[in-house]
Design brief:
CATH superfamily of the largest domain: Tetratricopeptide repeat domain
CATH architecture of the largest domain: Alpha Horseshoe
Order of helices and strands: HEEEEEHEEEEHEEHHHHHHHHHHHHH
Shape: elongated
Length: 386
């Protein structure tokens, strides 16, 4: 079963993820006989000349250099080179780049191609590579009016919204994803809606795509510009840690889980115990039994301290030693997470001592730990741990 944590506010999210769709009107500024449109490109404010005759968005070489030096562009955004015809008729070299997003009047256009004219102090032009993504555009004086942006009809948005909600709740994640992506292309999702895209990818075992989505949300957290509540931010770190672990990047999984664990409030002890188990399993996969054992003990402490305080107090009085003999005095029901954590200690014991800790293995198996049950049965077939 996957290790996905849904956000605590999930019950209300299906009604909160969608932005209101309406006509967009932008007031342009007239400078030197041309109209300029205020835009935000990858977080950087600019003013572009609105030019329907330009094939592409055009950025000056000096501006592109500034963006690259200040992390508004990455080297991976450079797509290649080509030739352009400039205003005086000459053919000049240009560099093709990808703008992650261009925001205009609240409309967010994703993956906009632009060109940088080499050696030219060229003006910033808002050309067709952006305009065609806007939808129906008209000009009334200094007013730029955009309707049905990117072909996003209100009727279509209503259907996609209903489908996304229905398919997600029915766990038909591929169809839910299809509708969420359409809504995202129309800039109809807030941060919680984008999370559902990552969640769909995660459910579909497309972990690299999920990581990309989650990383975008984490970047917003780091810039203090997210709409996610604090506990939801922590859950985001836990989900991306799970994706990293399943895609084989154990160190990244450890790093994100540790961030989550160190920020979890005390009342979220059950979640903390889960994260401790995830961390212990990551360290076990690296054969780091010391750290695996340490996180397993921390997780056991979380559960006993809040759910079984008398057992915790007795264990504490014995300096957190002799856990097996203490727990063996009680009858245990289903406590799978606790059993899994105890199993980690059993595994560490075996790797240190060279023989099974039958008492602890039996307790973990009785609690419902699948791994403990499997290993105990194996030892019993060898005549041990009866």
């Amino acid at each position: 079963m996957k290790n996905i944590r849904l956000f605590f506010t999930a019950a209300m999210l299906m009604f909160a993820v969608f932005a209101t769709f309406a006509r967009t009107t932008i007031t342009m500024e007239k400078e030197g006989g041309v109209y300029k449109v205020p835009c935000v490109v990858n977080g950087l404010r600019m003013k572009f000349i609105f030019d329907t005759g330009a094939a592409n968005v055009c950025i000056s070489e000096s501006m592109a250099q500034y963006m690259l030096e200040n992390d508004y562009l990455n080297k991976s955004d450079i797509l290649g080179t080509g030739l352009s015809s400039v205003a005086d008729g000459r053919i000049v070299d240009h560099v093709r780049i990808r703008l992650a997003y261009l925001e205009i009047g609240g409309l967010k256009l994703n993956d906009v191609e632009a060109i940088v004219i080499e050696g030219q102090a060229s003006p910033l032009l808002l050309g067709q590579s952006a305009i065609t993504k806007m939808g129906k555009v008209s000009i009334n004086g200094n007013q730029l009016i955009i309707e049905d942006a990117g072909g996003c009809k209100e009727a279509d948005i209503t259907i996609w919204k209903q489908n996304a909600t229905s398919f997600f709740n029915s766990k038909v994640y591929d169809r839910a994803l299809e509708n969420y992506l359409k809504l995202n292309d129309c800039d109809q999702l807030n941060d919680y809606g984008v999370y559902y895209i990552g969640n769909c990818y995660q459910e579909l075992d497309q972990y690299n795509q999920a990581i990309t989505v989650y990383q975008g949300l984490i970047h917003k957290i780091e810039k203090s510009s997210t709409e996610l509540e604090f506990i939801d931010q922590i859950l985001l770190y836990i989900n991306i840690a799970d994706c990293y672990r399943r895609s084989g990047n154990i160190q990244a999984s450890i790093r994100h889980n540790e961030i989550a664990l160190h920020n979890l409030p005390e009342e979220e002890w059950e979640l903390a115990a889960d994260v401790c188990y995830d961390l212990s399993m990551c360290y076990l996969s690296q054969k780091n039994h010391t750290n695996a054992d340490a996180y397993a003990i921390e997780g056991i402490k979380c559960i006993l301290r809040h759910k079984y305080p008398s057992i915790y107090s007795e264990w504490q009085r014995k300096n957190f030693n002799n856990l097996g003999s203490i727990m063996d005095k009680y009858r245990w029901g289903h406590e799978e997470v606790l059993g899994n954590l105890i199993f980690v200690i059993c595994d560490d014991y075996y790797n240190t001592i060279g023989s099974p800790h039958c008492q602890m293995l039996r307790i973990a198996a009785e609690m419902g730990s699948p791994s403990a049950q499997e290993i105990r049965n194996l030892w019993r077939s060898y005549g041990l741990c009866q």
